[in-house]
Amino acid sequence: AAKAAGSQLMVYHADLDERADETARLGADLRHSLDDGDFHVVYQPIVELRTGRVRACEALVRWRHPVRGFVSPADFVPVAEDNGLIVELGEFVMRTSCHRFAAWRRELGADAPSYISVNVSARQLSEPGFPTVVAGIIAEAGMEPAQLLVEVTETALFGGGTAVQAVETLHGAGVGIALDDFGTGHSSLGLLRTVPVDVLKVDKSFVDEIIEGGGRAVIVDALIHVSKGLGLRAVAEGVETAEQAAYLRDLGYEFAQGYFFGRPVPDPDFTGNGQVLAAG
Ligand code: C2E
Ligand code: CA
Ligand code: CA
Ligand code: CA
């Protein structure tokens, strides 16, 4: 569109305009899809490495766009954060997954996961009534606060302020707090002193360092010491191979999550006891 001037700058501006249009379109579509019920929630198992048993699961939102089909949350969550719709969308995810979790507990008894992990964005955390909304959902679902783990990123807490207060309020009410993508954001270690945290989710990029026949994976090794030293639970993310799972287990990781154990699905089977590692 900006060819006329032949300048790179003009072309660049045209690209930016197109991207802004695309973002605005996606934003408007999000609004319609919230009203039309095009969102749903899938659940990925979190497994105890020693036994292969599914101990928990993480709720992940999915969008079936009426025209484009499946759109990745990596593409639409940032848009929903920018236009504020993440507040409504996030509440939908929280309510859906808490009710689902409570149903599993009723139906499956000892086979049911012991907690549900739900992602919460910076914008949701900064919303004044957020802890009250969460408390309401927990009560309405008939679950214990400790059966909910809220996953927040270091970046969401970086600014301090309302987001950190919300985390403190939730934690005070008994809700678990996980730092998501741990090690990839700002000031990771400093945050652990100022924010109440129960779980470190060790980012996939560090698990990726564990390659077949490779040497030491330095960061996953360091982070298990950090989490044990501070009395936190560590969950390794993005485990794709048996070798990675065995390596993490041998380092002392208790919990892991990844395609090796199971992809996120609408209806996980918790009775199959997951993927068991060979002893060793
Ligand atoms: P995340 O919270 O770090 O979630 C983990 C992502 O890694 C998920 O992608 C999951 O499907 C993917 N994953 C899990 N195991 C593996 C593996 O072994 N290999 C690979 N390659 N990927 C794996 P997904 O569902 O596409 O979500 C992407 C991101 O979008 C999430 O990253 C999270 O930041 C955001 N997100 C997803 N659902 C929600 C939500 O309900 N609320 C908010 N605020 N953000 C969400
Ligand atoms: Ca997460
Ligand atoms: Ca993560
Ligand atoms: Ca991530």
UniProtKB/TrEMBL annotation:
Keyword tags: Membrane, Transmembrane, Transmembrane helix
Keyword Chaperone on entry: no
Keyword Acetylation in record: no
Domain EAL, chain residue ranges per copy: 23-278
Superkingdom in the source lineage: Bacteria
Name used for this protein in its record: Diguanylate cyclase/phosphodiesterase
